[in-house]
Amino acid sequence: MSAELERRLERVEGLIEQLEAEADPASRAAARELLQAVMELHAAGLARIVALTREAGAPGSKLLERFSHDRQVQVLLQLHDMEIEPPQPLVVLERHHTNGHAGARSSS
For a pLDDT cut of 70, what percent of the chain falls above it? Predict the structure, then answer.
């Protein structure tokens, strides 16, 4: 994990701990509700980005593959209980003209 990403995660954890320790109950409840609303907004946006990327065909598949191996993207998605599974290679059935039997080949 990059030092910058680690620093940001520690900052978020520190702010949550500070809020829990120092804020009055009404302020804590408002902060939790605000955080939940922002998280839901981000999760919906991320889900839409992933859906649009999947719809893009081969270029989208390549991006999803890269996203699935990027630690910063993984951390962001995990924060929203999401993950990207790398696309599986497409298997195409084709008829071999020489012997008439169908064969499978990978299109990757």
Answer: 78
